[in-house]
Amino acid sequence: MLMVCYMKKTNSISKPVVQIENIVATVTLDQQLDLHEIERKVPRVEYNPDQFPGLVFRLDRPKITALIFKSGKMVVTGSKSTQELITAVKRIIKTFYNHGIKITGRPKIQIQNIVASANLNVDVNLEDAAYKLENNMYEPEQFPGLIHRMTDPYVVLLIFSSGKMVITGAKREEEVSKAVENIYKTLKELDCLVTKSEDEQEEEFF
Predict the structure, then answer these.
(1) Which domains does the chain have, with CATH numbers?
(2) pTM score, two decimals?
(3) I want to staple 135 with a disulfide (CB 3.0 to 4.6 A). Which of 10, 33, 145, 149 is the partner?
(4) Which residues does 158 contact at the CB level (< 8 Å), separation at least 6?
(5) What tens digit of pLDDT does each residue of 96-147 get?
C-alpha cells in the first residue's frame, strides 16, 4: 500500500547572532620604557626605530598584537572579548617581569573601538530601509551595503541584504548587543525585514 504524506516546511526566524571580531585598546603604564632593553631581553619582539617608533610584541594565546612605545603607552589589537584583552595585558606585563623589565604601575586599559559582525537571520529590503531609516547612506552602485549611523548607542552599522552586518565604533561589548537588538527592532517595525516564503514539500513514505 502506498502512503503519501504532505509535510509543510516552516521557516522560523532565529534570533540575531553577534560575534566580536576585534577589540582595539590603548594601555597606559605611567612610566617610560627602554625599548632597546626590551628588545635585548624579551624574545620574539620586533623593533626597528628607523622605520617605526614602536616595538611590536605578539602573543599566541590569546592571539594579539601590541605596539609598545617608550612613553609607556601601548596599542593592543586582536582580542575577541574584554576578558581576553585583560588576559593579554597581564601576560605582556608578566613576560616583561620574567625577563627583568619592571613595570611599577597598574596598567590602565581603555577600549577605543570594537568591531563585530552580526547576522539577523532574515533578509533585509535595503531599498525600503534606505527610504524609511534615518541617518543612513545607501548607494548600491558604489557599495552593496547600507551604512547606518546609530546614535544610541553611538555606532556605525554596515547592513547587507542577506541580513549580515558589521558594527564598528562601540566602546563596550554591551553596546554591540544593544545596537543589533535596536536595529532588528527598528527594521521590523518599519517592515523592512523580508520573510522568506514557505516551501511546501511532498515526501513519500512507503
Answers:
(1) 25-111 (3.30.310.10), 120-194 (3.30.310.10)
(2) 0.85
(3) 149
(4) 145, 146, 147, 165, 166, 167, 168
(5) 999 999 998 899 999 999 999 999 999 999 999 999 999 999 999 999 999 9
